[in-house]
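fyi for ur records
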Amino acid sequence: MDKMRATVFSVIAVAIVVGASISLNYVTLDSGTFSPLPANRTGVIPVQDNGNNNTTNTVSNGGTDGTFTVLPSENLPEISDSRLKVEKVIEGLDLPTSMTFIGLDDILILEKESGAVRLVSNGQLQEEPVLELAVESDSERGLLGIAVQDNNVNGTKTVFLYFTQASGDEVRNRVYKYDLDESGNLSGETLVLDLPGEPGPNHDGGKLTIGPDGMLYAVIGDLNRNGVLQNYVDGDKPDDTSVILRVDGNGNAAAGNPMPGELAKYYAYGIRNSFGIDFDPLTGVLWDTENGPTGYDEINVVKPGLNSGWEQTMGPIERSGKTVADLVQFEGSHYADPVFSWSQAHGITDIEFLNSTKLGTEYAYNIFVGDFNNGNLYFFTVNEARDGLELGGPGLEDLVADDSEEEEAIIFGTGFGAISDIETGPDGYLYILTYDGDLYRIVPA
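which gave:
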């Protein structure tokens, strides 16, 4: 994200941070019993196809849908499909990085620098945080990622939070878990993962998600280290950087992880930095986004043991002048080219499989991706084998967008601001969180 820092951070005087697709998007979310939900709002929220009509996208003048209030706005983002429209439903957040739904119109949202966990209840942003944490917030450090797991016991859930904190003379990135009870209280802080935070202060990663296997997945970037996990053959030994970790709820290496021994917690490595991980709801396969230095932001299919290639390569390896022989390959690992790359870095952030047909069958179970630098929302159709993308635009046969003309074919929306998270809501609509403090959703027009 070096280019992003030069072009954006100087304006907002803070670092980009987006922590994670915390999606439970491979299943239909249960609204749970999080207080203060009315008793009649428990149970499964059905996701159905409403169909679309041909009305045009217009400025929202306020109204309601569910319990969200559609806020008046004269500067809504624009999208390319006139059958759909954008609505602003929340504003006034302070540098939000990640969100997760815990009910129909109920969301937990993280604020990077304040360390506040904010609650949207019945579609309204509550004034008081449900939790405030002391965080280190320099550059890309802060309160970054969240995932929620239903315990199926007495209506309780487990909330996992990824944040950067001081520890004596050190700075660490840590994942803690909390109990979320029926009354909406977060309690019982327990350390799950204790990860490096230095030198940094950027490339902290932070995205969390719960897999269809019930395991916790967490991504951390390279923190500007140069070890074997960054594909330096003579580099320092594995140190929990540049990896996606796959662990159980207590932080133990999950059974079936691809690599042995001191690599047992790792699901993938060779990752420069990532602000987006999500599971394909039809196959259960993990995908991610990855940021290049000045070029070659990526979308990857993350099969177990993926070596994503950093710091020897970004984008297709043939463009780097390297070969797989130049990489550090461990037992159980493999290299694969990204399924798509941007030759110019845009600060690509979250990735989301729309787990719904409510916006039309052409969007169902396909991919939306956000960026930080331009405020663009991108759309991709997954191929029939669901191991890559169908790219119909001119010049995209090589799986790389080399210029703005080639990018036009994949841009779905503009004007969102710095996108930090994207989620499928329990109502089946697409929700887009921005670092500028707003939450939008895309609905049928």
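Confidence is low (pLDDT under 50) at residues 1-64. thats all i got for now
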